[in-house]
Amino acid sequence: MTRLILFNKPFGVLPQFTDKGTVGSPRPTLSAFVDVPDVYPAGRLDMDSEGLMLLTDDGRLQARISDPRFKMPKSYLVQVEGTITDAALAALRAGIMLNDGMTLPAEAESIAPPDLWPRDPPVRFRKTVPDHWMRLTIQEGRNRQVRRMTAAVGLPTLRLVRWAIGDWTVEGLAQGTWREVGDPA
């Protein structure tokens, strides 16, 4: 039976089980939270991003989730610096030219601030610069793609939470916790 684990990754945690890149004090990794043998991340989530990670012991499922050719949608809740305009949303929906090429069109909408767990450390608050939230759904997974897309439309990302991958969501899953779901095959 295939194992599939949904994990709500906290901010500052490496999206891997070991930290081979640090001399001295190691950074926190998945192994501090998930003690399940022989499961591996299906895709990545930057150390400074939070939210849903999927872990599986099935290589084919891992490829189906993470390989861009399968176009599995990934939804993010994004706190941005600045005011979200119709023009910015239209640009995101049309696709953004990044230094590694044009992105596929995204689903983008402005949303009310979501009811999320507190982030540690908190996002820096500036009285003179507004911040707003958007939901962004992409079907690719380029390196830091959401951050680069929002920056390209003049809205730097302050906080990035992956909410869903395909039909799997982080809803009801406390930060730093995980649950196993039934056989996804």
Q: Can you count the helices?
A: 3
Strand pairing plus helix content: what structural class? alpha+beta
Which geometry do the CA atoms define? globular
CATH architecture: 2-Layer Sandwich
Name of the top-level CATH class: Alpha Beta
Query: Stretches where pLDDT falls below 50 for ≥5 residues?
Result: none
- Give the full name of the CATH homologous superfamily: Alpha-L RNA-binding motif
Binned, the helix content reads 10-25%
Strand content: 25-35%
Notes on the protein architecture:
InterPro entries: PsdUridine_s_RsuA/RluB/E/F_cat, PsdUridine_synth_cat_dom_sf, PsdUridine_synth_RsuA/RluA, PsdUridine_synth_RsuA/RluB/E/F, PsdUridine_synth_RsuA/RluB_CS, RsuA_PseudoU_synthase, TruA/RsuA/RluB/E/F_N. The protein is of the alpha+beta class. It has one domain (4-174): Alpha-L RNA-binding motif (Alpha-Beta Plaits, 2-Layer Sandwich). It has three helices and eleven strands. The strands form two sheets. Strands 1, 2, 3, 4, 7, 8, 9, 10 and 11 form a nine-stranded mixed sheet that branches. A two-stranded antiparallel sheet has the order 5-6. The protein is globular and about 45 Å long. The model has no long low-confidence stretch (mean pLDDT 91).
